[in-house]
Amino acid sequence: MNWIKINNIRWKTIENILFVIAILSLIGLTIVIFSMEKLKLEGTLIVGILTAFVSTMEISATIKQSSKNTFINTITIARKEYMAELRKAVEEFCVTAERNDNDRLKELSYKLKLLMNPADKDNEHWDRKAIEMIDKIVQAENKTEDIDSFITLMQSWLALEWHGMREEAKKGIMSKEDKKTLLDTEYSKYTEWMEEKDNGQE
User: Fold this and answer.
1) How far apart are CA 131 and CA 112, in angstroms?
2) What pTM does this model have?
3) What are the pLDDT digits (tens) for 35-62?
4) Per-residue DSSP letters for 97-140?
5) 49 with 36: CB under 8 angstroms?
6) Residue 150 has pLDDT above 80, yes or no
7) Which own/partner contact pairs does 123-131 have at CB distance under 8 Å and 24+ positions apart?
């Protein structure tokens, strides 16, 4: 993802150069105006200076928005790739668990855990809960019920990623507070659904 930073730096540099050009043009033309004696030329030059300055600012704003859109699109693509990889890893893990192939199951458990971040305190319900369930499935003799619970968690996780992706596509990068609200809302939906399943109400 380093190329994203490089791209943003490049656009920022171009924006700064355009701004400097506009300022220098303004200063240079102002000096020329004061050195000229004809009022008509002064008026024309002032209009020209202002037009050049406004145009440069508009170009700068367009470049900035384009850079922001590129960044958001890149994040959206990365999210889609992550969701596809996570879905595939969960599928392989659950199928292998049902077959009781414990050696392969351990391999896949490592692969799944590497897609998670238990150290993220804002995301602890999801990642830590998933890792706890993965370990439980690997160690359990009868894995069926644990697999079902794990699949439900991962379905909710994928729904969470989808909602986050849609919000960022509409509004741009989400604030920390918005992310936290989304995480808590989706986790509440998950826990409510699990309670209904446990009570046989689904």
Assistant:
1) 8
2) 0.62
3) 555 545 555 666 666 777 777 777 776 7
4) HHTT-HHHHHHHHHHHHTT--TT-GGGHHHHHHHHHHHHHHHH-
5) no
6) yes
7) 123/183, 125/183, 125/187, 126/153, 126/157, 126/160, 126/183, 126/187, 129/153, 130/154, 130/157
